[in-house]
Amino acid sequence: MPEKKKILEVKHLKQYFKNGRNVTKAVDDVSFNIYVGETFGLVGESGSGKTTTGRSILQLYKPTSGEVIFEGKNVADLKSRADKLAFTRDAQMIFQDPYASLNPRMTVEDIIAEGLDIHHLVKNKDERTERVEELLETVGLNASHASRFPHEFSGGQRQRIGIARALAVEPKFIVADEPISALDVSIQAQVVNLMIELQKKRGLTYLFIAHDLSMVKFISDRIGVMHYGKLLEVGPADDVYDRPLHD
To answer: ∠ CA 26-32-36 to the nearest 5 degrees?
Structure first.
């Protein structure tokens, strides 16, 4: 069997936050790999450090120490604007709260096209509109929704807009930070099924962060379990779900 190709290597990642004299070890010496085309689930209760891990990988927080290697390059060494832009294009995020993560003053078209504009991926306004409408239909919304504002949509629809925004720049890797926890149970499965379908069609790799182990098992190939900043175990989804080392 050919060796699986790593898209991401996290080595001894630490993310400490100082608050006066106190230091919170949000992520404390965490290491794992994610392979091309897989979904790696990161599960843990609130405060376990899983969201901070995702944000540190994408450099939304500057790690205290450790390495994040993306496609063989240490992300901390990306100094030029072009290299940093290339990384932000390849590695995108879907946020937890579909209410807070969409600018209420922007139309859906402008929200989704933000990445297209930053990375100069469309030549003119017509191409921009066409691309946004295509993305809306890809995530199960209507092209006519482009001119509306976020408050006109339900939570599930907003999360689809967030997914369309992440897909716009054609990333290779997506950190999905609790993308379903703010949604009704009836909508959660729809959003997860959409993510699975998009992964198959586009060859995406996911880091899927959640506290609900059953939903993580449903979407993930492998699962890592976090507790108080430490990664306690990593294994195939079925093994971690059926025979957890840590109850």
So the answer is: 125
